[in-house]
């Protein structure tokens, strides 16, 4: 079945039969199929009536795309000017003395949506033409101009924009990839623009934009929202180990911050003066430092920092300090403390895997 759209133009010629486009079927441009889809073929037909045997006319085609507004002069009679490289996908047909002109797309592109016009090419200044809107039905795609990964400060506001193409017009929705609720406690937001207001650390994470229409669904866009915040440190309270058993003890802290802070370890030298600290280094072979990124379900934008005290002796007891300093502003700094205390028995559970285990100290003669 063919669908026809109405639009008519008639030019005036003195005392002559005026050629015009056939509008008996409402519009003059006939599409086959009626509802063309991207990737499929389609033929458009224009018919000119009131042509006398000696009054030959040329018909041209042009397309004004909706997405970018560009105008393409496609063909005149049998000559095609566009969409020939790298592979031809457009053909024009007209038989001599025929009233019908054909334009064949194979395949249609999703960008072909727009105003398709056939017009008499040799009528002088006044154009005789017909235009029909070419609806190219296509699955939605999300455009690269959508919001990409962003970094914001705590307390700022920001809009996440998702731009999609497709016909019928896509429905756009936002969710969080980790299934946590969006701001306001909702699971999903319907709309092109997701507004984040007074951003907090809770708002950081991966957001997902989904575009769907009647033709299909599955076009997704993900982006990461990173929230800049000053560092803070959380440490375990204390760790116990016996001295002189040739075993180690390790202590752990979580350093939070974005961007990732710079970490350094210290040891208190005076219990009565928490600011009296000495920096620790691995060069003495007494300490081993490790820093790893935990799984996301443990924490986000954090570092698991571990210090291992090798072959614990009585002089190792005391308070150890992890200092986290912002790479952007050295004035933004946080400290966490963990105490290593003496136990009467060797604690095998916290020894380093490289140790031989809890061994009794050598007996004195």
From TrEMBL:
<feature type="signal peptide">
    <location>
        <begin position="1"/>
        <end position="15"/>
    </location>
</feature>
<dbReference type="Pfam" id="PF07679">
    <property type="entry name" value="I-set"/>
</dbReference>
<protein>
    <recommendedName>
        <fullName>Ig-like domain-containing protein</fullName>
    </recommendedName>
</protein>
<dbReference type="InterPro" id="IPR007110">
    <property type="entry name" value="Ig-like_dom"/>
</dbReference>
<dbReference type="InterPro" id="IPR013098">
    <property type="entry name" value="Ig_I-set"/>
</dbReference>
<keyword id="KW-0732">Signal</keyword>
<feature type="compositionally biased region" description="Polar residues">
    <location>
        <begin position="344"/>
        <end position="354"/>
    </location>
</feature>
<dbReference type="InterPro" id="IPR013783">
    <property type="entry name" value="Ig-like_fold"/>
</dbReference>
<dbReference type="GO" id="GO:0043005">
    <property type="term" value="C:neuron projection"/>
</dbReference>
<feature type="domain" description="Ig-like">
    <location>
        <begin position="230"/>
        <end position="334"/>
    </location>
</feature>
<keyword id="KW-0393">Immunoglobulin domain</keyword>
<feature type="domain" description="Ig-like">
    <location>
        <begin position="140"/>
        <end position="226"/>
    </location>
</feature>
<dbReference type="InterPro" id="IPR051170">
    <property type="entry name" value="Neural/epithelial_adhesion"/>
</dbReference>
<dbReference type="InterPro" id="IPR003598">
    <property type="entry name" value="Ig_sub2"/>
</dbReference>
<feature type="region of interest" description="Disordered">
    <location>
        <begin position="343"/>
        <end position="365"/>
    </location>
</feature>
<dbReference type="InterPro" id="IPR036179">
    <property type="entry name" value="Ig-like_dom_sf"/>
</dbReference>
<dbReference type="InterPro" id="IPR003599">
    <property type="entry name" value="Ig_sub"/>
</dbReference>
<keyword id="KW-1015">Disulfide bond</keyword>
<keyword id="KW-0677">Repeat</keyword>
<feature type="domain" description="Ig-like">
    <location>
        <begin position="19"/>
        <end position="129"/>
    </location>
</feature>
């Amino acid at each position: 079945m063919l669908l026809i759209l109405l639009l008519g133009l008639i030019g005036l010629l003195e005392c002559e039969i005026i050629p015009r486009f056939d509008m008996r079927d409402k519009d003059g441009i006939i599409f086959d199929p009626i509802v063309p889809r991207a990737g499929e073929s389609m033929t458009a037909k224009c018919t000119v009536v009131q042509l006398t045997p000696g009054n030959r006319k040329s018909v041209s085609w042009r397309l004004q795309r909706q997405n970018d507004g560009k105008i393409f002069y496609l063909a005149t009679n049998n000559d095609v000017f566009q969409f020939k490289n790298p592979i031809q996908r457009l053909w024009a047909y007209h038989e001599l003395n025929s009233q019908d002109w054909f334009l064949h797309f194979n395949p249609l592109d999703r960008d072909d949506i727009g105003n398709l016009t056939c017009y008499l090419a040799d009528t002088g200044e006044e154009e005789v033409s017909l235009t029909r809107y070419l609806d190219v039905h296509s699955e939605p795609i999300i455009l690269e101009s959508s919001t990409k990964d962003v970094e914001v400060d705590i307390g700022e506001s920001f809009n996440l924009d998702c731009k999609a193409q497709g016909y019928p017009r896509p429905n756009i929705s936002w969710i969080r990839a980790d299934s946590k609720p969006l701001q306001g406690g909702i699971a999903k937001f319907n709309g092109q623009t997701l507004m984040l207001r007074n951003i907090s650390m809770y708002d950081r994470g991966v957001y997902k934009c989904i575009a769907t229409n009647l033709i299909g669904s599955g076009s997704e866009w993900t982006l990461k929202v990173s929230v800049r915040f000053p560092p803070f440190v959380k440490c375990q309270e204390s760790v116990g180990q016996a001295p002189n058993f040739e075993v180690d003890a390790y202590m752990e802290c979580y350093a939070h911050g974005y961007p990732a802070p710079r970490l350094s370890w210290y040891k208190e030298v005076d219990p009565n003066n928490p600011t009296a600290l000495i920096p620790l280094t691995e060069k003495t072979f007494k300490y081993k430092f490790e820093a790893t990124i935990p799984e996301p379900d443990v924490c986000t934008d954090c570092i698991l920092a571990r210090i291992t005290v090798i072959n614990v002796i009585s002089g190792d007891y005391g308070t150890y300090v992890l200092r986290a300093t912002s790479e952007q502003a050295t004035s933004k700094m946080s400290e966490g403390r963990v105490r290593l205390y003496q136990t009467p028995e060797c604690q095998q559970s916290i020894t380093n895997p490289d140790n031989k285990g809890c061994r009794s100290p050598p007996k004195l003669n």
